Amino acid sequence: MEIGFLIKGLIVGFLASIPLGPVGVLSIQRTINKGRTSGIISGMGAATVDTFFALVAALGLTYIINFIEEQQFFIQLLGGGVLMLLGIRIFRTNPIKQIRRHRRQKNKLIEDYFSVVFLTLSNPLAVFLFIAAFAGIGIVTSNDSTLKSSLIILGVFLGAMLWWSTLTFLIDLFRKKFRLKQLWWINKIAGIVIIVFGIIAMLSVFFE
User: Can you tell me the distance from the alpha carbon of 39 to that of 66, in angstroms, rounded to the nearest whole number?
Assistant: First the structure.
């Protein structure tokens, strides 16, 4: 049944989103500092790009895959630099000023969304994760119908959103228990963690 392809895609999307990388840390930090909506929108940005990567993997777009392989060094170097800059920005964020700013004006959800889209795009090697995942659970779409392929891709997006919504909901449950001093430390820790991710990404290109 075609619904099985939707379920398989959902499983892949959910499991692929679980590893708590820099996007996960950023989503948690935004949920605590800005609220659940900001966290979900940030997760949606990651889910959108993951769905695009899954589409590339499912359809076997050779040109894009070859480009990623050929430019892996520069892409990973750029991605690491973006992570470091983002980490420094979060590290230097003053929670008091941030709260006052959000009280005066609405959260810039579009900015939250596209910043994560760009951040996730800086790690296109994730496309190979979806290639391996599809092969591992027996999904081959090159000869399948458009409906089956569409269900797989839709499932990936829904699975990713299920994870980000669940994570954001759980973090939001404890959000009101955080005080300004704790928010200050959360920004420092989140910033350092993301900076470390960036350094590792940049150094790894020289040791592969």
Answer: 33
pLDDT digits over 140-170, tens only? 555 556 777 788 899 999 999 999 999 999 8
DSSP secondary structure, the chain, as one string = -THHHHHHHHHHHHHHH-S--HHHHHHHHHHHHH-HHHHHHHHHHHHHHHHHHHHHHHHT-HHHHHHHHHTHHHHHHHHHHHHHHHHHHHHT--HHHHHHHHHHS---HHHHHHHHHHHHHT-TTHHHHHHHHHHHTT---TTS-HHHHHHHHHHHHHHHHHHHHHHHHHHHHTGGG--HHHHHHHHHHHHHHHHHHHHHHHHHHHH-
Q: Total structural domains in the chain?
A: 1
Mean pLDDT over each residue of the chain, to the nearest integer:
81
Structure tokens at 48: 């959108």
